[in-house]
């Protein structure tokens, strides 16, 4: 931990850590962690995913080349392991997003700002999910109900808003870690802001930090 | 009662719907029960009955020249009760089907994307529309995967070693090519395979990982 070092080396450590934390693998790991811990869908990291894919492809080519050139199998398998880990991160990231989309398809689709956080293939996926789910509910339940009660989103025609759409619980606590040297958060129920230094972990309401994810804080 | 609802315990509004939801909940975690079409239809029938009573009460008030929006008599509350019972029944029906659909989505991730990949004992618990839903949802997933050109239903656990030792549990058959190497995967034979190749067969119960 940083406390163990003198003033001078703290700055050095910080620099080193900043450098380490900005490799794409680390960024992808952070993106995955944020996505996993956040109750709602976050902005799709298009650039990062693109870079990660390019790097994975490069690694695949390298491994293949090594295999063909009869390189020492141990070295090849080390490269292979590195490749597997990168693949796992990328897959997990895309997967955890899809699973969120499955869970909150109706909610995400009707909310413009959430919908705009999706990649193009994700948008197509949600649209299909909604169609399939609606058809399924229609066939199994809704078609058997009286006329005024056949909406999948509303209880009956007198409902003024969607009152049957599953929504994520935003009023929940998450653990977050400050990613900047100094972060000050304004809490709802306290007059004093919550001040965090780098690496401090706090347990706060998701609503309070949701706009700061990836900027000032990362979820853990 | 003129309001048209009944206090006898057997026919109390919402009782059947409650049974339906409880039935879903009683299954072991992650385990589907048989789709109870009969009970579901009975609840739907109760909804129609609610609706008939509701309509006839409204009609009665109209015939008496009463304004439904403002009059607060027994008929009004009777209609209201039937409306609320109907909504409650609807929510229970939807919860039953929707929660099962969520478990079906989960099957696509954990077991396989094709209906024939699901074990017999799971398949027979699904209704016909649920099987259709499974197929369609799997197609949506597959179409996403082909667009991003990446299989997402492999690599479910963090990789430790790129190779794992497996034992074949079933006659996987010949002609299966794993990472461009064809091998004879006879039952009980053991192999040292790439984890990504083996995962597919492990999730289907055709191979098991040997640890230690």
TrEMBL record, chain A:
Entry keyword annotation includes Disulfide bond: no
CDD domains: GINS_A_Sld5
Coiled-coil residue windows: 42-69
Gene3D superfamilies reported for this sequence: 1.20.58.1030
A GO-annotated cellular component: GINS complex
GO biological process: DNA-templated DNA replication; double-strand break repair via break-induced replication
Key words, A-Z: Coiled coil, DNA replication, Nucleus
Matches recorded under Pfam families: Sld5 (PF05916)
Residues in GINS subunit domain copies: 74-139
Ranges that cross the membrane: none
Compartments where located: Nucleus
InterPro entries noted in UniProt: GINS_A (IPR021151), GINS_bundle-like_dom_sf (IPR036224), GINS_Sld5 (IPR008591), Sld5_GINS_A (IPR038749)
Primary site of residence: nucleus
PANTHER family, A to Z: DNA REPLICATION COMPLEX GINS PROTEIN SLD5 (PTHR21206:SF0), SLD5 PROTEIN (PTHR21206)
Function of the protein: The GINS complex plays an essential role in the initiation of DNA replication.
Family: Belongs to the GINS4/SLD5 family.
Name of the protein in its database record: DNA replication complex GINS protein SLD5
From TrEMBL, chain B:
The UniProt record lists the keyword Nucleus: yes
Record keyword Nucleus present: yes
Occurrences of domain GINS subunit (ranges): 75-148
Domain DNA replication complex GINS protein PSF1 C-terminal: 160-211
Cellular component annotations (GO), alphabetically ordered: GINS complex
Protein family per UniProt: Belongs to the GINS1/PSF1 family.
UniProt name for this protein: GINS subunit domain-containing protein
Protein species of origin: Dipteronia sinensis
